[in-house]
Amino acid sequence: MIQQRIDTASSTDADASCLPGAERPLPVFLSRSPVIEQMMATISMIANSPASVLITGESGSGKEVIAQYIHACSNRSAQPFIAINAAALPKDVIDNELFGHEKEAFTGAISKKSGCFEMADRGTLFLDEIAEMHPQTQAKLLRAIESKSFRRLGGKEEVTVDVRVVAATNKNIQQAIQSGEFREDLFYRLSVIELALPPLRSRREDVPLLTDYFLAFFARKYELAPKTVSPEAMEMMSAFNWPGNVRELRNLTEGLTLMCPDCSITPKALPERISNHAPQPLTVSIPVGTPLDMAERIFINHTLASVEQNKSAAAKILGISRKTLHNKLNVLPTS
């Protein structure tokens, strides 16, 4: 979760040298997860580069806030950060939103309109749910990214911009390419840097940290006394799988802030989907005498299951490259 700089040793922080000026506080992504720490280190290395970034991860896991973090760490931080959701708009509308139009380009175009590419000039353009974009728009987008220029709808002149593109998707991008939903050449252009954001259930150590932050945030927002979470309730929340990820946790804490009559949140205040949830084992039991290659396969399979078969996220947890993981899956015994 990104917030303004705070004094806490439990936050994943970035080097202040990323900032163009000390007057602009650097956002902080709250996490105790080694995977997130590694991602923050990667961002600090590539922040000032104009290279495109592709962020993959489940809905609600924080892809847009990672994009904001990249922008805030970069030398573009004083310039615009423009976000657009490709899944929320039909083809004709998103073309207009991305590239703008000239006066009288179509019925109702009573004046010239700048699109997101122009508005993000010298800054960052965030394209959310990029895999939902219409194939024709994908082709126009590829040209605009490669040439750093485009034409407004109804226009003849090329508009040149300096834009850093960050895209995100919750889809399996390789499956989308194979099915023809997503252009392979656009994938290669967008994924100069690829970041796989793990779901909240694979970084359960972040649940207490985020819960405390959200409870304090909503207490200030609604001018209420801050609430605490009992150890029993926190154990249940940490064991829950959070299918809606950080967004679901945020919404829950807002509701608890408003509806829980007590200062301490106990199990009875939690929704049944959490209080009745059977905890998932966080350890792997491997019998003595199991061959080493089989034990490695068991451990890899459990890790993959914990991140919904996301090989990039699993590789990060295991501390190996995605290629190494792929090779191991091909050679290790299956039974």
Shape: globular
Tell me the span between the first and last alpha carbons: 40 Å
**Rounded Rg:** 22 Å
Number of helices: 14
Outline the biggest β-sheet.
Answer: 5 strands, parallel
Instruction: Count all strands and give the number.
Output: 11
| Protein structure class | alpha/beta
What is the strand content? Answer: 5-15%
The ordered H/E elements are EEHEHEHHEHEEEHHEHEHHEHHHH
Mean pLDDT: 85
Which regions have little confidence, pLDDT < 50, spanning 5+ residues? Answer: 1-24
Order of neighbouring strands in the sheet with most strands: 4-5-8-3-9
Question: Level of helix content?
Answer: 40-55%
How is this structure best described in words?
With 335 residues, the chain is of the alpha/beta class. It has 14 helices and eleven strands. The longest helix has 17 residues, at 206-222. The radius of gyration is 22 Å and the shape is globular.
Give keywords.
335 residues; alpha/beta; five-stranded parallel beta sheet; two-stranded antiparallel sheet; 42% helix; disordered N terminus
